[in-house]
Amino acid sequence: MNDRVVPEPQRRRRRPTKQGTVLSAEVIVSTALRLLHQHGSEALTVRRLGAALGADPSAIYRYFHSTDDLLLAIADELIGHAQQDWRATGDWQADLRGIGLRLHAAYQAHPQAALLAAYRTTGRAHETRAVETILGILRGAGFPDPEAVAIYHAFVDQGLAFAAQDAAAAALPDAARAADLDVWRRHYARLTPETHPHIAATARLLVTDMRHSGYPLALDLLLAAAATRLQQRLGAPH
Fold first, then answer.
1. DSSP character for 72?
2. Distance, CA of 142 to CA of 138 (rounded, Å)
3. Are 23 and 62 in contact (CB under 8 A)?
4. What is the phi/psi pair of residue 45, to 5°?
5. Which one, of 34, 117, 36, lies nearest residue 78 by Cα?
6. 3-class DSSP state for residue 9?
7. What is the pLDDT along the chain (238 residues), one digit of tens a residue?
């Protein structure tokens, strides 16, 4: 793709595609997400998108001037998925926990897209709304602005890092993912107390726990640490 993007008023396709679809940025992004889910990153090309949409590939230039432009829109769409139906409770820790878990779940629902998009900064509508919401929660809880920004940074980076890592595991072929998980049973669970006493003592727990993401606990630990910092700053029980 190149920079031949068409101005906004001229974007809407007046006639449906061969599949009866009227093109829009939203339709292209949803189709790209579907192709990524089915075929991986190699699906993110103008040719394959055009074929899936039943449209000439050049029509996509009306909405996105490059594949990177489209990728940023995909990243922003995943952030938008995480915010659907979210409502603040007034409890800052519960609200941030809910946002973090929703973001993680949105990326896990589209692991191939997450591998390409989790580390991008879009500056678009959904991301901007998320930044405003998270900072508002932290400032409303009483964090001074420097502390609010620092915790926002840690919160978002932690969530996106886990999202990318867990998405990479989810995107593995089934056989490879199963083999990786089975290492805990085939190797670690067979180590002896004489050579590896700590692994041997916890082997059964490792076999079970390593099948799940560590993100929920990591998120709780971060929020608990943030609450302690806030309590220390306010000098009052939290």
1. H
2. 7
3. yes
4. -130, 155
5. 117
6. helix
7. 444 444 444 444 455 555 556 899 999 999 999 999 999 888 888 999 999 999 999 899 999 989 899 999 999 999 999 999 999 999 999 999 999 999 999 999 999 999 998 999 999 999 999 999 999 999 999 999 999 999 999 999 999 999 999 999 998 999 999 999 999 999 999 999 999 999 999 999 999 999 999 999 999 999 999 999 999 988 755 4
Q: Which two tokens stand for residue 130?
A: 């998320």
Yes or no: say if 75 and 120 are a contact pair by the CB < 8 Å rule.
Answer: yes
Count the Cβ atoms, other than its own, within 10 Å of residue 216: 14
**Contacts of 41-47 spanning 24+ positions with Cβ under 8 A:** 41/112, 41/115, 41/116, 44/70, 44/71, 44/116, 46/1
Domains of the chain: 8-65 (1.10.10.60), 87-234 (1.10.357.10)
Comparing CA positions, the residue from 43, 44, 51, 60 lying closest to residue 18 is 51
Q: HEC states along 140-197? A: HHCCCHHHHHHHHHHHHHHHHHHHHHHHHHHCCCHHHHHHHHHHHHHCHHHCCCCCCH
Contact 23, 82 (CB under 8 A): no
Report the amino acid identity of residue 85: D
Taking a C-beta distance cutoff of 8 angstroms, is the pair 30, 18 a contact? no
Supply the angle between the helices 92-109 and 125-141 in degrees, to the nearest 10. Answer: 160
